[in-house]
Design a protein that fits this description.
It is a single chain. This protein has 184 residues and is α+β, with helices and mostly antiparallel strands. It has a single domain, classed as Glutaredoxin, CATH 3.40.30.10. The protein is built from 5 helices and 8 strands. Helix 2 links the parallel strand 4 and strand 5. 28% of the residues are buried.
């Protein structure tokens, strides 16, 4: 019954209408736990190149990070799991600050002013580069189907792991996978 698009639309509209009814409290659901697993690619693929601007208008080319392990995280401010994983990305980045490792957070569809204002509302202000993909061209080239989606690249620029959905990036299992790539 709920497979037909019009039924899903109707269900979404009814749910939204319930939120607008005065005095009607919606139950607060606990968000699901963030995963701590990265999916290895059966055959690592060379990541496509890109050049994107950061919040200060400086350009970052993926090619400039060759020789480093790179975590590319596609995200948006309106995405709850993206927001939830942001502190763990910062902890990971700080944990590996003395290593040839970088996090590149690629924001989708939003502008620098909006993201900067958003950063002032969360518990952590990331020290890693926040890049902008306003037309979603880079995410399309990477095959991103939903947010958040992350890719872990080895020092040669090959995508070796993928993660779709929120992650606890400073979890020991993920740290172990990253350290193994750093040791290669």
């Amino acid at each position: 019954m709920w497979r037909r698009p019009e039924w899903r639309l109707l269900a979404a509209l009814l749910s939204a209408a319930l939120l607008l009814v005065p005095g009607r409290a919606m139950p607060q659901l606990e968000p699901p736990e963030l995963s701590h697993r990265l999916t290895p690619l059966a055959t690592p693929e060379v990541a496509g190149g890109f050049v994107l601007e950061d919040m200060d208008g400086e350009q970052h080319a993926l090619q400039d990070y060759r020789g480093k392990v790179v975590l590319i995280n596609f995200w948006a401010t309106w995405c709850p799991p993206c927001v939830r994983e942001m502190p763990s990305l910062e902890r990971l980045y700080q944990e590996l600050s003395d290593e040839p490792f970088v996090v590149l957070a690629v924001n989708q569809w939003e502008n620098a002013d909006h993201v900067f204002a958003f950063m002032g509302q969360i518990d952590v202000f990331p020290s890693f580069p926040i890049l902008f993909d306003p037309d979603s061209e880079v995410s399309e080239a990477f095959g991103v189907k939903g947010l958040p989606t992350s890719f872990l690249l080895d020092r040669s620029g090959r995508v070796v792991y993928r993660a779709v959905g929120g992650r606890e990036f400073d979890h020991p299992e993920i740290l172990q996978q990253i350290r193994a790539l750093l040791d290669e």
